[in-house]
Design a protein that fits this description.
Blueprint (H helix, E strand, L loop, with lengths): L3 E4 L5 H10 L4 E4 L3 H8 L10 H8 L4 E4 L10 E4 L14 H13 L6 E5 L7 H13 L7 E5 L9 H6 L3 E5 L3 H10 L6 H11 L11 E5 L1 H32 L3 H9 L20 H14 L5 H25 L6 E5 L14 H11 L3 E5 L4 H7 L6 E2 L3 H5 L4 E4 L11 H7 L4 E4 L6 H5 L4 E3 L8
Bound molecules: nicotinamide-adenine-dinucleotide.
Length: about 450
């Protein structure tokens, strides 16, 4: 087993650290945020992610440790960097946390042992070289002689993070250093054996298909590996924007986008994933990763017009939701609008850069009162948008109170299981705009609630 340190205990670091500890690698998660480290030490999860807390509880003090100091780097074989890489104003990735993490690692490297440093954060092409040069400057040590920097992008989805980390489709490694490559193979060897796979499935009681293939283990050079992450995220953003545009056209022509997407997805060249209609993509990754890709492509004089259009189309989709509501309510002045869901997807508390913020702002500008509910994301939404004069509600029912309309933005399962009689009794005007096409419009019509979906999926 290898000694591992993971710098950063956020959505990626805490899950990665716990997964590595679960397969037996003694792993210390290091974070500058004392609150997160204290939570981890108590066996609690610093983020909301289904299944994570019980995993941490089972491992903490055994193979999983947490620290605010970089001291454990001294005895590490592998050091992951999983700190945030938010957007700067110009769209490029802000690498300040990466630089700080690299400097911290450098100050604690043992010159007598070869350490493999792994960029798990989503970072622009060339960042492995940047990390290496920060460490060289900090320490006088030489990259490739005393340490090497490997790229290993993360593809987990919040809300399904454990499943994705234990059963990934692929593991991408970017390195040309023999020790770097060898150590990563050793680190991930439990993932590459059927026995390891079955053990994860049994232990975590995931419903996994036993015939599911093992992950593909893909080794490439650092720069291609770094690009894979951006190219993949931008592609997924394009796919969502595309189906959302088709949804708008379906509405104009009377087709049903749900069936259109189903029919498209049966083609294995297209695939049935990421063809679900929504109010647009958002969250902590797609907006910043498309922005970084576009900013970098501009710097190098390469026009990524497909990605650029997808970003534009996505904004139009946010606006389209508000337009749809305006068609129903006409003047928005003084109207009360409830919002169900402020996170960019269910089963996460991550409310960074969500479409909810954009839509709420537009509604407020039009003179509406807005009351929001989310099962997990309200604290972060409030923190990210402190200026919004809106009402934060304890329940979905409260958000429907005296509402002239409710917009369902996030497909939390509980929004499909509400006591509709109570919702109807509370609402002023019984209209729900279901941007995820998840509600049963016929059933809700029994309570006189009019449900309108996107792309004619639920006809109003
Ligand atoms: P996050 O903000 O949740 O976590 C980052 C953590 O790093 C924070 O807890 C912060 O306190 C800590 N940190 C910052 N600087 C530090 C330092 N110098 N030393 C120690 N700790 C430090 O971010 P995240 O969502 O986990 O994302 C991390 C990276 O992974 C980003 O590059 C992101 O794009 C990428 N990624 C995220 C996801 C996702 O779903 N969230 C998926 C794939 C990839």
């Amino acid at each position: 087993m290898l000694n591992v340190v993971c710098i950063g205990s956020g959505y990626v670091g805490s899950v990665t650290g716990a997964a590595l500890a679960a397969v037996g690698h003694p792993t210390t998660v290091v974070d500058v945020d004392e609150r997160k480290v204290a939570l981890l030490r108590q066996g609690k999860s610093p983020i909301y992610e289904p299944g994570l807390e019980s995993l941490i509880q089972a491992l903490i003090g055994k193979t999983l440790f947490a620290d605010t100091s970089y001291e454990p780097v001294r005895t590490a074989d592998v050091v992951f960097i999983a700190v945030g890489t938010p957007s700067k104003k110009d769209g490029t990735a802000d690498l300040v946390h990466i630089r700080e993490a690299a400097a911290g690692i450098g100050r604690h490297l043992d010159p007598d042992r070869f350490t493999v440093i792994v960029n798990k954060s989503t970072v622009p092409v060339g960042t492995a070289g940047l990390v290496a040069s920060v460490i060289e400057r900090e320490t006088g040590l030489k990259a490739e002689r005393h340490f090497t920097v490997v790229s290993n992008p993360e593809f987990l989805r919040e809300g399904y993070a454990l499943e994705d980390v234990f059963f990934p489709d692929r593991i991408v490694i970017g390195s040309s250093h023999p020790v770097g490559l060898q150590r990563m193979r050793e680190l991930y060897s439990p993932w590459m054996q059927r026995s390891g796979y079955e053990r994860f499935a049994k232990h975590f009681r995931f419903e996994v298909d036993p015939s599911r293939p093992l992950p593909k283990y893909f080794e490439t050079d650092c720069s291609s590996s770094e690009m894979i992450k951006y190219a993949a995220n931008a592609f997924l953003a394009v796919k969502i924007s595309y189906i959302n545009e088709i949804a708008r056209l379906c509405e104009a022509l009377g087709s049903n986008v749900k069936d259109v997407a189903a029919g498209m997805g049966m083609d294995t060249r297209i695939g049935d994933k990421f063809l679900e209609v929504s109010s647009g993509w958002s969250g902590s990754c797609f907006p910043k990763d498309t922005a970084e890709l576009l900013a970098t492509s501009e710097k190098y004089g390469i026009e990524l017009s497909v990605v650029r259009s997808s970003v534009q189309s996505n904004r139009q989709m946010h606006d389209y939701v508000v337009q749809k509501l305006r068609r129903q309510l006409k003047s928005m002045n003084g109207r009360t609008v409830g919002i169900w869901g402020v996170t960019f997807k269910p089963n996460t508390d991550d409310a960074r850069q969500t479409q909810a913020a954009h839509i709420v702002r537009e509604l407020l500008d039009l003179g509406a009162y807005v009351q929001v509910h989310d099962p997990q994301g309200m604290a972060m939404f409030r923190e990210m948008n402190p200026d919004l004069p809106i009402r934060y509600c304890e329940s979905a029912y409260e958000a429907a109170d005296r509402a002239d309309a409710v917009i369902l933005l996030t497909h939390w399962r509980e929004y499909g299981q509400l006591r509709w009689e109570e919702v109807a009794a509370r609402m002023n005007r019984l209209y729900v705009l279901d941007t995820r096409n998840m509600l049963d419009s016929e059933r809700l019509w029994q309570y006189r609630i009019q449900v309108e979906g996107l792309g004619n999926s639920q006809r109003a």
